[in-house]
């Protein structure tokens, strides 16, 4: 292989042209700057996976002391909004209407059973399975509440022997378990995908469609110059957008960045390289803006949202889908992003994921270089 | 060093696309410092040949040498000597004139003082000095073409390759471009110019006449035209119906081609001097033949084996278009003070015309003159700002859909569904005209029979041969037997034979009482019109029969000016009357 020839003047002229086109095309500005900020705000404020103040109905068929005590404990919880009633059917109706997310039935034998201590008291919990996150939360939270209350009772009565150990959860990296803190960093990967793949998927195809590619090919421009002139301006655009994202994330959305910005910068470059490569590849192969953008949407944007682990946890996906997620560069980037923002510079994770990103970037850019035509019939 | 007389040598050049022959063995030599025109129908291999010269395609077989260099193997040395302008001019529309020039100057390493000189030279040459800061996308078609040329000339190429530089460009801009290219050739540049306009090719030093991937003629146009001496005649001073006479005369075995020219017919004889019998033509007692100068188009049609004949099976099949008694026969199409304003810009400015039943009415005008806007208002696709348009007595403002049911519309570039096959296109268009069930099936079967579409029923419309595409587009426009037909540049980029066939159908339909309104850039086609309106800057600057317009433009001592000359003079005269 001969060394790629690059005439700096040609490259500079082409980059300048590309930059003019970016600046003058309102849609690139929209995609690069307005869309990211919008997405960040949506993920930062609009979407919230935290379960605070779940509405729970309690049906107390038991008028005993213990039942009243337990209900009182639940009322005191900062995470529950309690409504009490006597009729199951009325409560069920509310559950069906979605006015409450779960109903807890304290049956008439609750207090006597608890007092006897020998037998386990049965409590019925009905939850709205249409909201699995909330349903799961209610199940485990109420279980915990019951245990704590029972132990408290035992202590009060001087019976230390009932329970010997408890779990005291402490949430590392995100102590207050605010979902914004992992959603917002994750969304940066979506934004970078949009800029990298979607925007660049249009640029080569546009040249073919408008007939300018033919004119360029008839000049002395080399393949390397052509390729670099497409990569460099969009790389700069992507990194500026990335910096904007980080500023908005840390300054406005108050998400802490615990790792180094420069590491973030380098890893983002790798990810952007892979995105640019994919976008340019699609654009080069299809030579049609519409087809390229559609493919980029399906091949890059959707996987980046669904399979990167940014919203949906990869470990809870079916095995086959988990396997597929290893092919998605966004998976590695999200991993690094969440590590950098929430945990800090953990070298093992950063280097491992960066290695995958590097491979992906080389793969797509290499493929594009191979497919870049110097003739119309290449 | 003595330079060889030939700039380009081609030996047995072949090229295939997807197994189909685009070029099937071409050998020729192209003279240095001359303008060589490549002419031929769409799909005849013109563009392929030019791209092979530019090194943008690799030939499947044979050999091509440009300036003694192989365009692919020695591209690095050849490219700086080549200027190539692709069909869409290769301009960046969102970059200004200056930025486009700078980009291409950088790419061909034109620097410093040299660059400044060359810019000045080219800008004054192309007359673009005042538009330096305008984005290329906002230039008119003619100016884009000039800028495209300027960009290709920056590197002072030895060989200039122009791929259909004049498609969709009005006659005035075409003429200016031609002048510029002529000057270049005088300066020693070898120019290759591909075109489907034969009148343009006639001005070249040499022509390569191509058809179906083969070279049919190669040499100076004068040589081939000289071979036609005595075979081109005009039938003048006829009385009676010129279209009926044309149909009759084309039946004669002595005639290979014929077109209408104003009130006369222009005919090409099979053998020089062997005229058809006047008595059988019912052309009146004053009718007589006059020898006229043959042109390249005559020769071209002769080489391709003659025109398509005068019969239109379609017209024979169509019922007579009858009019309701309440409709004014003299104004089946009517525009009254028709005006359309876009913001500050008056696209159509108080235009008036009336079209009689069974008449062909032509709207001509330079690019951007407002004829498309006028046309769209007449179809009810655009609402007039003031004034009104009526079709068959129906005001398009009030009931556009009702009026549209009365008209057939054939758009530029054949608005067919390219990925549907012929049968599906026919079913779709008959369906949207409200035909259902048996009536629909019968109509589709009729069209297939009339236009001989049977062998292509399962062919995708986009892959049809051009002539069949045109037939299909026409059949889709007339399946509901409209009394009015609107044709918007129906023959743009189409070869003369296919155009002849098209006009045979149109003439046939007109004989059946159909009224036709047409726009075109082919000035010789305007000759088919009964009356013409020339639109310029949104206004009608002249109207009348083709002969009347020619009369207006003719200066003392002149005879027989062409329609193109007429058009250019009338537009320029209008320019002069304004400050």
Features:
heterodimer, A: 378 residues, alpha/beta, 4-stranded mixed sheet, 14 helices, elongated, B: 579 residues, 6-stranded mixed sheet, 20 helices, globular
Q: How would you sum up this structure, described in words?
A:
The complex is a heterodimer of chains A (378) and B (579). Helices cover 66% and strands 6% of the residues of chain A. Chain A is α/β, with parallel strands linked by helices and 378 residues long. In chain A, strands 2-1-3-4 form a four-stranded mixed sheet, sandwiched between helices. In chain A, strand 1, helix 3 and strand 2 form a beta-alpha-beta unit. In chain A, helix 10 runs parallel beside helix 14. The model of chain A has no long low-confidence stretch (mean pLDDT 84). Chain B contains 20 helices and 23 strands. The mean pLDDT of chain B is 86. Chain B has 579 residues and is an alpha/beta fold. In chain B, 50% of the residues are buried. Chain B is 34% helix and 25% strand.
Strand content of chain A: 5-15%
Ranges of chain B where pLDDT stays below 50 over 5 or more residues in a row are none
Using the alpha-carbon principal axes, give the shape of chain A.
elongated
Biggest beta sheet attributes of chain B: 6 strands, mixed
The helix-and-strand class of chain B reads alpha/beta
Mean pLDDT across every amino acid position of chain B = 86
> How many alpha or pi helices of chain B?
20
Task: Give the % helix of chain B.
Answer: 25-40%
Uncertain ranges of chain A: none
Q: Helix-strand pattern of chain A, N to C? A: HHEHEHEHEHHHHHHHHH
Oligomer: heterodimer
Main interface pair?
A-B, 26 and 35 residues
Distance between the termini of chain A: 18 Å
Distance from N terminus to C terminus of chain B (CA atoms, Å) equals 54 Å
Main β-sheet, spatial strand arrangement of chain A = 2-1-3-4
């Amino acid at each position: 292989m001969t060394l790629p020839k690059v005439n700096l003047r040609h490259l500079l002229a082409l980059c300048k042209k590309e930059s003019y086109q970016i600046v003058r095309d309102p849609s690139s500005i929209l995609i690069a700057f307005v869309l990211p900020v919008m997405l960040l705000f949506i993920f930062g404020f609009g979407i919230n996976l935290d379960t605070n103040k779940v509405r729970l109905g309690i049906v107390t068929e038991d008028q005993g002391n213990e039942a009243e005590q337990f209900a009182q404990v639940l009322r005191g919880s900062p995470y529950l909004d309690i409504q009490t009633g006597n009729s199951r059917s009325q409560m069920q109706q509310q559950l069906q209407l979605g006015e409450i997310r779960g109903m807890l039935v304290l049956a008439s034998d609750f207090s006597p059973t608890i007092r006897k201590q020998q037998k386990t008291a049965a409590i019925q919990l009905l939850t709205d399975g249409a909201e699995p996150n909330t349903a799961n939360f209610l199940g485990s939270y109420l279980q915990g509440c019951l245990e704590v209350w029972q132990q408290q009772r035992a202590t009060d009565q001087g019976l230390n022997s009932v329970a010997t150990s408890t779990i005291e959860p402490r949430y590392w990296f995100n102590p207050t378990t605010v979902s914004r803190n992992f959603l917002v960093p994750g969304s940066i990967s979506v934004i970078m995908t949009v800029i990298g793949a979607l925007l660049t998927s249009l640029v080569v195809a546009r040249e073919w469609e408008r007939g300018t590619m033919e004119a360029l090919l008839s000049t002395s421009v080399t393949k390397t110059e052509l390729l670099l002139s497409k990569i460099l301006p969009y790389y700069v655009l992507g990194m500026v957008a990335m910096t904007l994202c980080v500023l908005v994330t840390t300054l406005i959305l108050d998400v802490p960045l615990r790792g180094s910005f420069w590491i973030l910068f380098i890893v983002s470059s790798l990810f952007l390289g892979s995105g640019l490569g994919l976008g340019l590849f699609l654009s080069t192969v299809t030579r049609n803006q519409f087809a390229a953008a559609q493919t980029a949407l399906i091949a890059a944007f959707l996987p980046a949202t669904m399979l990167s682990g940014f919203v949906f946890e990869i470990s809870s996906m079916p095995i086959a889908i988990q396997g597929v997620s290893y092919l998605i560069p966004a998976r590695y980037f999200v991993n690094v992003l969440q590590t950098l923002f929430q945990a800090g510079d953990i070298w093992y994770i950063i280097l491992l994921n960066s290695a995958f990103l590097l491979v992906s970037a080389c793969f797509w850019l290499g493929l594009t270089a191979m497919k870049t035509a110097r003739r119309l019939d290449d | 060093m003595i330079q060889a007389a030939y700039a380009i040598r081609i030996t047995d050049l072949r090229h295939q696309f997807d197994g189909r022959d685009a070029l099937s063995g071409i050998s020729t030599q192209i003279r240095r410092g001359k303008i060589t025109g490549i002419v031929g129908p769409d799909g005849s291999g013109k563009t392929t040949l030019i791209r092979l010269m530019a090194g943008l395609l690799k030939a499947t077989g044979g050999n091509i040498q440009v300036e003694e260099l192989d365009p692919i193997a020695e591209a690095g040395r050849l490219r700086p000597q080549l200027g190539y302008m692709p069909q869409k001019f290769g301009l960046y529309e969102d970059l200004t004139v200056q930025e486009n020039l700078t980009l291409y100057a950088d790419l061909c390493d034109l620097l410093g003082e040299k660059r400044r000189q060359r810019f000045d030279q080219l800008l004054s040459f192309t007359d673009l000095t005042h538009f330096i800061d305008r984005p290329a996308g906002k230039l008119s078609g003619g100016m884009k073409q000039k800028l495209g040329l300027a960009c290709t000339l920056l590197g002072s190429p030895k060989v200039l390759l122009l791929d259909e530089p004049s498609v969709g460009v009005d006659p005035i801009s075409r003429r200016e471009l031609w002048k510029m290219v002529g000057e270049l050739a005088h300066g020693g540049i070898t120019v290759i110019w591909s075109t489907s306009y034969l009148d343009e090719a006639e001005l070249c030093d040499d022509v390569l006449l191509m058809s179906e991937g083969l070279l049919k003629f190669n040499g100076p146009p004068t040589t081939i035209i000289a071979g036609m001496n005595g075979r081109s005649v005009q039938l003048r001073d006829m009385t009676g119906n010129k279209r009926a006479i044309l149909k009759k005369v084309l039946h004669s075995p002595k005639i290979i081609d014929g077109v209408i020219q104003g009130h006369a017919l222009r005919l090409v004889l099979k053998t020089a001097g062997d005229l058809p019998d006047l008595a059988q033509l019912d052309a009146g007692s004053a009718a007589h033949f006059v020898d006229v100068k043959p042109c390249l188009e005559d020769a071209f049609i002769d080489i391709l084996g003659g025109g398509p004949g005068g019969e239109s099976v379609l017209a024979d099949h169509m019922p007579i278009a009858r009019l309701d008694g309440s409709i004014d026969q003299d104004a089946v199409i009517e525009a009254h003070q028709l005006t359309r304003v876009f913001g500050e810009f008056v696209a159509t400015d108080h235009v008036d015309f009336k079209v009689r039943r069974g008449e062909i009415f032509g709207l001509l005008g330079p690019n951007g003159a407002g004829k498309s806007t006028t046309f769209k208002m007449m179809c009810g696709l655009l609402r007039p700002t003031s004034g009104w348009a009526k079709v068959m007595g129906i005001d398009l403002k009030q009931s556009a859909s009702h009026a549209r049911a009365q008209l057939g519309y054939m758009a530029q570039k054949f608005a067919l569904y390219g990925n549907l096959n012929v049968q599906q296109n026919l079913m779709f268009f008959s369906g949207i005209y409200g035909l259902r069930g048996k009536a629909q099936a019968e109509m589709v079967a009729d069209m297939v029979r009339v236009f001989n579409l049977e062998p292509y029923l399962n062919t995708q419309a986009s892959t049809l041969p051009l002539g069949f595409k045109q037939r299909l587009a026409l059949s889709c426009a007339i399946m509901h037997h409209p009394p009015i037909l609107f044709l918007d540049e129906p023959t743009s980029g189409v070869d003369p034979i296919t155009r002849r066939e098209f006009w045979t159908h149109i003439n046939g339909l007109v004989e059946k009482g159909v009224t036709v309104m047409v726009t075109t850039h082919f000035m010789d086609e305007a000759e088919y019109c009964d009356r013409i309106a020339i639109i310029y800057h949104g206004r009608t600057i002249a109207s009348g029969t083709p002969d009347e317009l020619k009369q207006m433009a003719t200066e003392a001592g002149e005879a027989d000016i062409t329609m193109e000359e007429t058009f250019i003079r009338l537009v320029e005269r209008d320019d002069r009357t304004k400050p």
